[in-house]
Amino acid sequence: MKRKTFLRAGIATLSVAAMAALSACSGSSSSESADNGSGSDTIAIGFSQVGAESGWRAANTKDIQDTLTEENGFKLSFSDAQQKQENQIQALRSYIAQGVDVLAFSPVVETGWDAVLQEAKNANIPVILTDRAVDTADDSLYESFIGSDFVEEGQRAGQWVADNFKDEELKVVELQGTTGSAPAIDRKEGFEKAIAGTDIKVVDSQTGDFTRAGGKQVMEGFLNSHDDIDLVFAHNDDMGLGAIEAIEAAGKKPGEDIKIVTIDAVKDGMQALADGKINYIVECNPLLGADLAEVAKKVVAGESVEKRIVVEDAAFTQEEAEKALPDRKY
Ligand code: AHR
Hints:
Its main location: other. It is built from twelve helices and twelve strands.
């Protein structure tokens, strides 16, 4: 491949510093990119993951690593950014310096990516966004986005609440995902849209950073400052599971005294739903590896790809969770 040959010559002096920068991101691993120029069809792909903040993220990472294998035609370099944008930017720069064929990442926050995306474009390395989108005025900076419609997820969660508690005055607290991230922004927007015009009010809303510990801590604060919470809307299962711990520690029954609605539908969340501690879960499908592999193969082959590939999500009541649990993949 001409692009790669040109790039390798150009980046030889950069790679040591860039590799050092990448290994500074804890949990990261890297490997030499495959040499397509020598006749191999292997695609060298650099993937920068958000972190390991949730059960959803663990399932997403496993699926990507299980799919982008050598047998499937990939040489995957994977790094974990520990929920820090600067780590992701470092990792992307290192992959650019290595001259990978494709870059893929799930951006921790929506904004602040234009400079590094422009660097990838200048190096002729196509970028695929998975799971989370970026906020940019120039959509030529990436080839494709593969993931869920987060606004719709929030809207489905809110619609369930509106349908089940219509005509009731309901006090809701919201556990938001990572501040500035696409799912936190969009799920909030969707939920608010669905409950607009009802007597269901969000009385407090704070970030729990998509983690179980964060959800527990923020919920403890909510329980201290509000004695009449009716429902928790958690932007993911893990924060909802943390909220359950806080509610039980406060001597109340999650799912009964305080209702809980979450997003993700990972196994732990589905178990809590089947156990009656969560009331409703909107799914966010983490199995994006197959779509990523297909899109990566197409962009490397110079074929056109869809700009936005939205994966399908289900939603579960308590009864539906009980039925779905035995076959749940993640
Ligand atoms: O971007 C997807 C979200 O990120 C998931 O809903 C959440 O669990 C994860 O951390």
